[in-house]
């Protein structure tokens, strides 16, 4: 039973890397754990970086950015789903300085 609960938690963490799911989890999850907050932040920051670069990029470069975003999101989703702790230093530093 405990393994099933951990798998459900890992799935919730992994959903943070699906576009807009991080925003949804941010607003609907009442009691967010520290781990969930971290993955929500990561998902939101990765998405916003993608959006900003997409706006600034030329048409040909947009396809490359899209593939890069999908790859990074899929990588983070997989690592989180299997229960591996992934750290993104610059996002952690930014949010720690803002507290």
SSE layout and pairings?
Elements: H1 2-15, H2 21-28, H3 34-56, H4 59-81, H5 89-98
Short key terms for the protein model shown above:
99 residues, mainly alpha
Major sheet summary line? none
Strand residue percentage: under 5%
Structural class assignment: mainly alpha
Order of helices and strands: HHHHH
Quick overview of this protein structure:
The chain is an all-alpha fold and 99 residues long. The protein has helices spanning 2-15, 21-28, 34-56, 59-81, 89-98.
Structural overview:
The protein is an all-alpha fold and 99 residues long. It has one domain. 79% of the residues lie in helices and 0% in strands. It has five helices and no strands. It starts with a helix and ends with a helix.
């Amino acid at each position: 039973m405990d393994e099933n609960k951990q798998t459900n938690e890992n799935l919730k963490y992994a959903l943070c890397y699906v576009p807009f799911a991080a925003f949804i989890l941010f607003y609907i999850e009442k009691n967010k754990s520290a781990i969930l907050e971290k993955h929500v932040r990561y998902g939101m920051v990765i998405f916003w970086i993608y959006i900003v670069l997409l706006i600034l990029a030329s048409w040909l470069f947009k396809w490359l950015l899209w593939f890069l975003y999908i790859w990074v999101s899929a990588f983070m989703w997989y690592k989180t789903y299997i229960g591996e702790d992934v750290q993104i230093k610059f996002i952690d530093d930014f949010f720690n300085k803002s507290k």
